Amino acid sequence: MARSDPGSRANNFDALRLIAALSVVFSHSFLIADGSEANEPFVWLTGNQCILGLVGVFVFFVISGYLVTESWCRSPLPGRFALRRGLRIYPGLIVNVAICAFLIGPVVTSLPLSAYFAGPELGDFLVKTLTLEPGPLALPGVLFADTSVGLHVNGSLWTLRYEVIMYLMIVILGMLRVLRLSTCVVLTGAGIAAVYFEHLLTPFGDLGEWAWFLGFFGAGMVLHFLRDRLRWDWRWALLAILALVVFVRLGRFIMLFPLAGAYLAIWFARRYDPWLDYSRYCGDLSYGLYIYGWPAEELVMWLSGGRAVWWQVFVGSLALALPMAWLSWHGIEKWALRWGRRAAIRPLVVAPAPIDG
């Protein structure tokens, strides 16, 4: 029987993250195969408002807001907080970028290898990916298929930049001692307003994109502070689903998602359904699947000569990306996180004061 056990590691957070990553790969399979996501089922279901993969991204930001706020509150030390967050993103990402640039690129490129490695696009790709530039990200002479995104090596990485900006926001709020429920409610409201006025945010670049995601991350922050006051019950979760249906009918699904979707995500994540506890046996594959999903899909398209349909791209990419996610977790990510945890609990060494005499 499913039970809620938020105080221990027995929960559905890993399962929900994996579902969110799968939804991103699913939606991208339409974009990569057809050059458009117009035929993606969730587009039809929401009246052309949203793709399923974007909902997965929203869920990632909600979970992150909830857990990262908890992480800061448990250990409000900027250096150690930054170390833990950096170790969650960069070790796996660095290897992913290296594989794309020095393995996939040389295989797919139409240029001689000497021209490929001498091309300025290679250095630009490395700099942009490792500094989390949104893209688009291309490599010299690399064209996976003749589609609108056939040049893009990894179209999933653009959200990482705004995730890191959220981490910086947590540090600033924590150091100013204003990381509290009232602040998070205001931030969530500001994020919802930013989606409503998104056409006015374009001139603000990264700041505008950050504001667009703020409602989802902020909703997770709010739920962290309310976690012991709210009733986490399937009946409220059902009401949240009904609210999302109403939001679709109002034509405001994305804007209002934080008001109901966040509760639904955290309610599910705080439960424990043993049959969903895949990470006990395989490890946490969600981040690896997220960063390897797009390159795997592009590689499937290239191997098919640009003829693969969406389901072939989806299934074929999972056959490639899931083993890479497993290797990423067991070979890189878990070791980096373990080292980070040991570093975080290591006591600070304070030099003894000199004795006058």
Structure, described:
The protein has 357 residues and is mainly alpha-helical. It is 69% helix and 1% strand. The chain contains 14 helices and 2 strands, in the order E-H-H-H-H-H-H-H-H-H-H-H-E-H-H-H. It has a two-stranded antiparallel ribbon. Helix 1 packs parallel to helix 13 and helix 4 (78-108) packs antiparallel against helix 7 (158-175). Residues 1-7 and 348-357 have low confidence and may be disordered.
Structural class: mainly alpha
Helices and strands, in order, run as: EHHHHHHHHHHHEHHH
Unreliable runs: 1-7, 348-357
Number of DSSP E strands: 2
**What share of the residues lie within helices?**
55-70%
How many helices? The count is 14
Give the strand content.
under 5%
State the major sheet. 2 strands, antiparallel
Question: What integer value in Å does the Rg equal?
Answer: 21 Å
Q: What topology, given as strand order, has the largest sheet? A: 1-2
**What's the overall average pLDDT, rounded?**
93
CA(first)-CA(last) distance: 70 Å
How does the overall form come out from the CA principal axes?
Answer: globular
